[in-house]
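Before the break, one more example. Copy the sequence into your notebook; we will annotate it together after we see the structure.
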Amino acid sequence: MLYWLSQARKHIQQTKRVILVEGFFDCLTLYQNGIKNVLATCGTALTTEHMQQIRNMARELYICFDADTAGRSGVSRSMSLADNSGLMMRVVMLPSGEDPDSFVRREGGASFLGLLEKALPYRDFMLEDAMRSFDLRNVQGRMAAAKAVIPILQKISSRLERDVYIQRVAARLELPLESLAAEVAEARHTNREIRNTSKDLQSRPKRVVLGPRQLAERELLRCLIQDRTAIPQVVAQLGEAPFTNETYNVVFRVLAANQSLATALENMKGEDDIAVLTQLVEQTDSPLTYQVCLDKLRIEQLREELGVIEEGLATLVHQDPTRYMLQWRQSLLAFWRWRRLAQQVTDNGKAG
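Here is what the structure looks like once it is written out:
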């Protein structure tokens, strides 16, 4: 649901432009300061239905979320819908620590309109956001930044647009244009090869309904395909083979070794394994951060541990009362570990 739509509809239709903010008060403050073509998501994720709704009224979409990590993540999730939206999308950059409500109250509506004029095209924002955490003053930082933007560059379907952005990134990172272009081409070839291999399969495996832990594992691996920098933290907390699905572990080891996904494809023999890899590659735009996925997986691991202990308790209650009490104490400790972790994840989500 997009909030404030009934009040803003006629202004949107007149300007053919939507300004999208996160919070209700962001929306209200902008409206009261003369910026009336504004809508709010109010914490809900932007969907393809929302994009179609906006497309029916406007041609331009300006996204203005809070200037913090959660806000940037929200923008990145919205960007995954951009290519097929038919909208010209731009990102409004607020000063650090600001949200639309606080900025307009302090600086006024005219200053906010000035930010709209400086808004970045969505592709520029995605590339800048991918590079912002690296030190571009040294070679190692520039190389790491290049690896972070290659997944973005290889998804640009237009050859002309892709070449323009490759030139920009190569100049920004002071890297050889030919080398960066070759890396992007290899990434595109790898993804195309994986998809084609899947299409060539005579029979596809039956769809398996995944349990909570398997779903958490899949989302975590999708996040790591997008951002390999989080792999050391995953290894530190879950080990070098953190998944129950061995195909996932093969992909994880390839990512940890900083190798191409084509290497994972070469190591797979069965049709089921290739199909699993294909699904991972085709849907890498995970709306979650790796930390959220990692927390969910740890919660499911503890939940499974609780289940095993409870099964043991059911057997021991009549057979061995002494061991039952020891097992009951272990179950209680496991429960409190699970509850503490679940509360921590909930608190982190509220803080974000």
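The chain has four domains: 5-127, 135-189, 212-282, 295-351. The mean pLDDT is 80. Try to locate both features in your own notes.
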